[in-house]
Amino acid sequence: MKQNLTGKTLLIIGVLLVFLFGIFLGTDPAKSLAARKQGGIGAMITQNIHLGLDLRGGTHLILQVMVKDAVNANTDQAVERLKDDLAKAGVTNATVAKPDPVNAPERIAISNVPVDKQSAVRSAVEDDFAKEYDVASTDTGYSMTMKPSTERDLEHAAVTQAIETIRSRVDALGVSEPVIQEHGLGDNQILVQLPGVDDPGRVKEIIQSTAMLAIHQVLGGPYGSEQEAAQANGGSIPPDEIVLPTGGAQAEAGQFFVLKRAPAVAGNDIRDAQPGRDENQRPDVNFYLTNQGGKRFYDFTSAHIGDKLAVVLDNKVREVATINGAIRDQGQIAGGFSEQSAKDLGMMLRSGALPASIQYREERTVGPSLGRDSIRSGVTAAVVGMVAVMAFMLIYYRASGINADLALVLNLVVLLGFLGFSGATLTLPGIAGVILTIGMGVDSNVLIFERIREELRNGKAPGAAVDQGFAHAFLTIIDTHVTTIVAAFILFLFGTGPVRGFAVTLTFGLFANLFTAVFVSRVIFDAELSRRPKSISI
Amino acid sequence: MELFRNPNVDWLGKKWYFLAFSLIFSIAGVLSMLFWHHIPLSVDFRGGTDVTVRFQQQPNPDQIRHAMDAAGLHNARIQAIGRASENEVLISLDRQSSGSENQLENGKGKIIEALNNAGFSNPEVVDVAVVGAVVGKQLQHQAFWATIYSLGGMLIYLWFRFELIYGVAAVVAVFHDTLITVGAFSLTNKEISLTVIAAILTLIGYSMNDTIVIFDRIRENLKMRRRESLGDLVNTSINQTLSRTVLTSGLTFLTVLSLYLFGGEVLHGFSFALVIGILIGTYSSIAVAAPMLVAYQEYRQKSGKATTLPAGKKARA
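Above: the input entities. Below: the structure tokens describing the complete assembly.
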């Protein structure tokens, strides 16, 4: 054993240095050194050990993506294509519509197909849609239901695209180190963390605004209420039309228009949007269409000269205008903008529309002063706890207490180093986890020391007592650590944010403890014994 | 310095006292959960809006309630929290019955507006938590299942390392600890939040630890001392590990006490759960798990089944 002592000591010193490196320099030493120049040692450390929102201050949001919107958009497009296909097949009297767009957006019904055209319709439908829809015959035609796998893919794509869109909006706002990711608990939820943002009002609006700009043909209006609009249309609104309210700082708010459900021009057709000024020098937003979008708009406006069109933003009618001539690729939304809101809208239109609308499910904001207080409380509690424990170990176990205290300090360094290397986030419960690690960590030492005392009482020589002490205690230490790690692992799976931070520091701490209590303590004892093999102070 | 030189206490003999003690506290807790304070849930689980506001001067809760009522926010709960010098007040609104997200948003905005209108100078919003009803329910489910899985995982691990009865005894002890801790929250009307659940899962791990140390010693002694009755052997095992048990609990308790005293308002529920949990967790290893092991063994003996020594070897009785 003696010959390995130097080797083992060097290993321990090596470990100490490596984890100190992790705390101060971490995985990106250049950045850490730069941070030190800017903000001192504190900034250097927080470059590697990230502070959670509850310590830094900031906002945490959970959003739900209403994926049915995306399914609706897809089936709307399918309806339009079906109409084209049917027209090409020479079928003129059939109707294509969604029987229940609100609760079953994935279903389309084709009815009134004349018997002689049935096979033509069937082959047209199956050519284009067999991959994505299940087609079934009904009395008068066909019913198409989107396949569950297609629907799932669509929903998943909606969430992914929403994340990207939100990310570009948040980046444009200049929030530092935001976190935007899918919230792991299924259900199409997104987690957004915005450090340093303690007044999230404007940011929430910008994230939530679908920025869905569309132009629809106006079929009727203005009406004073939805019921009035329905009555004017013979009692109910047919499924290929929709009633939308006015909104967005219009002078005539509170009115309703009946519009064609499928838009002439929508989201993807917009390639750019810039804030500008209208004829009265008031802020407005100019939008520019893509080639395809421009062509479609040209066809639409040529075919409907004299009719009215509505500019719809986020499902609210913003403007109604008469079509005086064909328009190819440019339009303008005016009225009711401040310079800031015109800029915001331009940015949102550029970053792309959200594929589906979003609702907030959870919002937490921690002000920076609370964050600072939390850090102060946490650190104070940790220091007091540690000093109390270290003092006790010295008094109770005399010189061996130094052994335990050294192991404890190393434990802490390894734990913090782990955090630094892994880029994990330290939260307030995480600091509590560190404090708990101190208490539970010292347990391993107590187990060993008590066993050593027992062996000494039974008459064994110090060397043998130390051997036996470690041997017997080892299994128990493994058992206790494994059960706590199981608890921490489950916490990690089920928890979010701060609770995860706690699980992470507890687990790292326990691993670090396995190393220090078993290996490091042993080496120190061996070193002591090799100098004075006849007695140990315990 | 040594506190416990060869203790020799008849732990199992005291088991009726222990049972009485546990029953009193468990029943008190359960009664409170059913009829008195129920289980106070924080905004994480019940949904709603919690706004923590820091005022320039010591605020009068009645004034605040008046301001809330004036803004149409009835049934706001108002609670002074933290140190008196910081003038912090927690204003809680339950989720409106219609439960739409916009209502929640207006709740927070309305609170701030109401305070400003009522003439409070510069109230500083320090902390906001707005939780939708759906998320609240989701979190409740998660917390529940996390606890169940934790217990299950440990049961399986103990079954693997020892024998089934050990696992069952340990899980019963831990369940007892959790019941008493949640009961304590109910009795003192403290809110259970996500971090409190984290504390409860931690104390489950801690109580298991404690129980395992004793079980390990029992198993070791079973191999060596064949002639003693199980009762005597368990007593000896507890006595042998007593020093370690008291010391570790004491030290961990020291650190947790430090957290309770200095850790600040945000961690208050968390540290309270740990303070109670560590005391009860240590107690339950001696008072619940060990007696249960012996009782099971005696039951098997009485009903004439082969006495399976808990270490898994059949005894030549």
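Note for the figure: The two ends of chain B are 42 Å apart (CA to CA).
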